[in-house]
Design brief:
about 80 residues, globular
């Protein structure tokens, strides 16, 4: 599930991407949540884990739709 990082309260400046998290830039938490929900409706949810009780150490490859979500956050 994609997660967006945003500032809280009186955030000064932009919040960038951190690791696997999407950078919310200068969005408020409410706007980022609505934008993330719109992206999930537009591009679909990520596929479920094959075996969530026994995760592997290999890094999952993001789907083509998951790669579009950070671009949407960068343009809003």
């Amino acid at each position: 599930m994609p997660v967006a990082i945003v500032g809280r309260g009186n955030n000064e400046g932009f919040t960038g991407a951190q690791g696997v998290f999407i950078g919310g830039r200068n969005l408020t938490a409410t706007k980022a949540r609505l934008l993330l929900m719109a992206c999930l409706m537009r591009f679909g949810s990520p596929p479920p884990a094959a075996d969530p009780q026994h995760p592997t150490k290999r890094k999952p490859r993001p789907s083509a739709n998951a790669l579009r979500i950070p671009d949407v956050f960068d343009t809003h």
